[in-house]
Amino acid sequence: MRSLMKRPAAWPTTRCPAPNSSTAPARLAKASKPLALDALLPQIIEDHQHLTAGKSLQLCLAPLSPCKVITTPGVVRAAVGNLLRNAIENSDNGRIDIRLQDDATIVIHNPGHGISPAQRDLHTHGACRCRWR
């Protein structure tokens, strides 16, 4: 079983450190439990399906393999829900592909409107791009 609360041994410098038992709030660590991502992901997608109304947009979930992590459902729902909502809001037509990789990484690929290099620099200046596992 993989843990979302443990930091991998070697992270590239462009990633933020994942929360671990020394940095996560105690109540979050206490609330963490084994969670089947392969069962939760379809629910999150269904909860956001209504956001595609009026758009020629499909949410496509790749076939899932069993995948368990140690975390709280609320953290996963908030993080994945936010990314999925952003993908839907920034796409008018086409497919949003969602897949769960064997290492518990959730990948969301959307056609989007795109973002100019100037806008990207404005939004990411001084920010850290996070990829928690």
Question: What does this protein structure show overall?
Answer:
With 133 residues, the protein is of the alpha/beta class. It has one domain: Histidine kinase-like ATPase, C-terminal domain (Heat Shock Protein 90, 2-Layer Sandwich). Helices cover 32% and strands 21% of the residues. The protein has helices at 26-31, 37-48, 73-89, 117-124; strands spanning 2-3, 33-36, 56-61, 68-71, 93-100, 106-109. The longest helix has 17 residues, at 73-89. The radius of gyration is 16 Å and the shape is globular. Mean pLDDT is 78; it is low at 1-19 and 127-133.
Please sum up the structure shown.
This protein is 32% helix and 21% strand.
CATH superfamily, by name, is Histidine kinase-like ATPase, C-terminal domain
Number of domains: 1
Oligomeric state of the chains?
single chain
Alpha-beta classification: alpha/beta
Rg, alpha carbons:
16 Å
What overall form do the CA principal axes indicate? globular
Brief descriptors of the model:
disordered C terminus; disordered N terminus; Heat Shock Protein 90; 4 helices; 3-stranded mixed β-sheet; alpha/beta; about 130 residues; single chain
Q: What's the topology here?
A:
Layout: E1 2-3, H1 26-31, E2 33-36, H2 37-48, E3 56-61, E4 68-71, H3 73-89, E5 93-100, E6 106-109, H4 117-124
Parallel strand pairs: 1-4, 3-5
Antiparallel strand pairs: 2-4, 5-6
